[in-house]
Amino acid sequence: MAWAEGGTVRYSYERVDLPTGEHYVLVPVDEYKELKGKLSKSTLFDAFNLLKDDKKATYGHSSIRITGRFPGNPKVSVKIDSSKKGYASIIMAETVYTLTELGVKEVEFPGYYEGAMTRADVPFSAYSLTLPMWRALPLSDTSHAQIRLPDGELISASEFARRWKKGDDKLQKALFTYLGDGLPFTVNQVLSLLPKLDVEYVGEVTPLLTHDSVSVRKKALSVLEKHRNDDKVLTAVEKMMESDKSDKLARAAAEFLGKAKSDKFNVLEALYLLDKGSEKEAVDAAAKLGKRKGDERVVDALYTHLSDKRAPVSQASADALEALDADAKQLEALENKKIGDELRLSIARTLAEDKDDKSKIVGLTYIAENTTARSAELALRKLGKVDSDEARKAVEEFLSAETRRKRLTAADVLAEGGKVESLPALTKAVAKGENAHEIEEYAYKLLVAQPLDSVLEKTDSRDKVIKRLAYQALGERAVKQGKGRKVFDKLVQGADSRDAAIRGASAQAIGAFANDKALEVLEKLADDKSAAVRAGVAHGLANYKGGEMFDTLAGYLDDKSPEVVAAAIDAMAQRREATKWNEIKKLTEAKDPRVRANALRALSQLVSREDKTGVRNVISMLSGSVSDDNRAVQLTAIRQLATFKDGKATTGIAIQLNAADPNLRVAAIEALGKTGHESATELVLSVLEDPNPDIRRAAIVALGELDDKSAESNLEALLDKEEDPDLKKLIQKTLRKI
């Protein structure tokens, strides 16, 4: 298929100027643009008609007839227009040379030539070999050929060789014109030739990376291999990688770039595979990119793939960002809802372990906001250990969290942190009313841990809650730190305050002195109209162990205020006043849940563990109260049962192992761990593989407290199944312990 290789398919009888003078010969003419497709009878007809169309004056109405199979051994006959018989020899010469070029062996011309005519029978001169310029390179022995330049000029092979060796600029430019040829085959042949020649071709080849033909683009990329470190080439290949419609070529361009020495370009292969590669390729690419520090393109690409629908790819991208210390993008990811919840949580856990406080604070805050109660609690406690105002403020935000557990955990963390700056946030939470009493206790804990002078200063606070708590804390703080007289006088002053809350707080605090002068103040306040004051007196009397003002406490058990009754019960329990056992027992059925809870706690504290009957009765009451309609009473009953190392106590606790409220279930499991009773192990094991991670965590801790080796195999089995990294660590720690 000479024409398909850029050769010639039509011969024209023309005048040409040769070194030997002017001659008339058969000259090959390109026709590949018109002749396309596979060789067939149709091709032969088309070739003949091209001759006619080009030389109508010569051919007239001459026609061709083809019989037989083609290719093979067809019979070709040309009928020459009788009016053009003067041109018969030219028609025969042109037709024979043209059709034999296409594979026909001979042609018949009835009435003009006897038999069939072959090329040897043509009476005119023709070139034995006519080569397009590109076929004559690299130079070889083509001394008998004529070389046809792209513009149609014919020169001898020897002349061509001479000029080429001298670096003829015209010939080199002529060679590159083939790159604009319409036939991809010709372009590819010339492209293959260029690396073998001593010519500068990069500038001519690079534009072909956007050629219409896939094969040309592929060949151009291959030819440029030796120039993979040329920035202009790399820039063009990068554009090819990004825009080529062929996936195979785009990938080839990426591989090309991946071998470049320049980091600016060789990273592009991994970026391409992260985006367009298979899942495994993308994962591997992310891992490689995780070693490419200092390139924002890498960080941006990895961030984009955090939302990749392929979980392994998104996780690998997250791991790579961590390896790059790309904290800013990780922090940004936590706010991006296009990224899966699990991955964002994973990123948050990574940030939570960061050395940078800002990242750690954001990570722990996210965990606390978006995980189950126990995990959130652990995150808040870790957050509380970060020594910065930002961390403290982040914890304070949880005082208004949606769940009670988070609110109370935040309050506890702030109290443990001991920073007085948190007091306003705590008292603001108290004012909101949600869990006010419990949060107030944490505020008190925080305040009482402050230096005495600081507590004294807070007694003049404009915040009523802080002021009341400061008075309340003064007594305990003074006893621990000294400066008793100054504080005592302040409390006496507070006991005369018009504000009932201050009087009550002062009464409770002054009781910490547990001396006669303090008792005189309590006696004066015992019948105060304010329940808050009477409750304060009761709390203050808890510090007297010699039976002082017993009648007052006994009377308080019948007080109309549940707050006073509850305080009196607590005081009697602390003073070990068992003589009021029956009255306290009756109060376990009081309407007010605070009274019921305090009564249950008091009875479990007052009963002697040697009194088997008493213990049995208390366990029975506590077991019944485990199902109380008030959650605080239930929790009190569960926790008090844990103080008895008794099988019946564990049975009572077990009632809530299947409670609808997960917090009750956790409390029950924690209580079982504290019983120390052998029967508790089996009960705890029954919930060890619960779907709720808070339940599993509580069970693991409880088994560690029970220190029962029989749980070892169950814990090892859970270790193999557990996916939560924190729980896995906890299991391992527990296994080491038991």
- Proportion of residues in extended strands: 5-15%
Widest beta sheet: strand line-up: 7-8-9
Structural class: mainly alpha
* CA(first)-CA(last) distance: 86 Å
- Strand runs, count: 9
Radius of gyration: 49 Å
What do the pLDDT scores average to?
A: 90
The level of helicity is 55-70%
Tell me, what's the shape? rod-shaped
Helix count equals 41
Which stretches are poorly predicted, pLDDT < 50 over at least 5 residues?
1-7
How many strands, what sense, and barrel or not for the largest sheet?
A: 3 strands, mixed
Characterization of this structure:
With 738 residues, this protein is mainly alpha-helical. The strands form 4 sheets. A 3-stranded mixed β-sheet has the order 7-8-9. The protein has 41 helices and 9 strands. 59% of the residues lie in helices and 6% in strands.
Keywords:
single chain, mainly alpha, 3-stranded mixed beta sheet, 9 strands, disordered N terminus
Structure in a nutshell:
This protein is mostly helical and 738 residues long.
Question: How is the topology of this model organized?
Answer:
Elements: E1 10-18, E2 21-29, H1 41-54, H2 56-59, E3 63-67, E4 75-79, H3 88-101, E5 107-108, E6 116-117, E7 130-132, E8 146-148, E9 154-156, H4 157-165, H5 169-177, H6 184-193, H7 202-205, H8 214-223, H9 231-243, H10 247-258, H11 263-266, H12 268-276, H13 279-289, H14 296-304, H15 311-323, H16 327-333, H17 341-352, H18 357-370, H19 373-384, H20 389-397, H21 404-417, H22 423-432, H23 436-448, H24 452-458, H25 464-481, H26 484-495, H27 500-510, H28 516-525, H29 531-541, H30 550-556, H31 562-575, H32 581-586, H33 593-606, H34 612-625, H35 631-641, H36 647-654, H37 662-675, H38 679-685, H39 693-706, H40 712-721, H41 725-737
Parallel strand pairs: 7-8
Antiparallel strand pairs: 1-2, 3-4, 5-6, 8-9
Helix pairs in contact: 1-3, 6-8, 8-10, 9-10, 10-12, 12-13, 13-15, 15-17, 16-17, 17-18, 18-19, 18-20, 19-21, 20-21, 21-23, 22-23, 23-25, 24-25, 25-26, 25-27, 26-27, 27-28, 27-29, 28-29, 29-31, 31-33, 33-35, 34-35, 34-36, 35-37, 36-37, 37-38, 37-39, 38-39, 39-41, 40-41
